[in-house]
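Lab notebook page, bench 4
Experiment: in silico fold of construct C2
Operator: M.H.
Input chain length: 183 residues
Purpose: comparison with the prior construct
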Amino acid sequence: MDESLSIETRLSEVYELEAPVLMGYLSKRIDRDSAADIVQESFIQLYNALKKRVAIENEKAYLFGIARNLLYKSYKQNLKESSDSIEAVLSMNIDGQNELSSGGIDNPETLVMQKEMLTLLKDGLAGFTEEEKEIYELRWYHELKQKEIADIVKKSERQIRRDLEKIVKKLRETFQKNGWYNF
């Protein structure tokens, strides 16, 4: 009884100190509701580890490690469910209304350019491997850094840099083949 009280007291102290910092860290990366869920889950996992008497030298580092892993898991899940995903771009109807052409742009030339760019992007993305699509989406839709992408896809940061260079080169070639030389 006395031991569980000390665990709960310690957890309460850690919560007071670290919950706002952890929430700030997560809120920069995802929406506030999802960030709050990850903060809660992180503290639950910390509590369970303390109850099991896991040797934890630095509770803050342990807590942020849990949160980072949950964040990456959330990114992976969102990749599968994302309406902004590459698959959505690939299945867009170029001639119909889409989010590009419904952005309040009245200039017909701009709309034609947007449709042409979307068509070229679709062509370029269609030739990507599943791994390239995942890396592309993590970088340009979720705006993750190379280190974060490397942690998610279990590759080195150097390899991610090479993969991103290859992806950009492929897209640039697709655009340049069709007369778009400023990419």
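Observations: Residues 94-102 have pLDDT under 50 and may be disordered. The chain has two domains: 2-81, 86-177.
Next step: discuss at group meeting.
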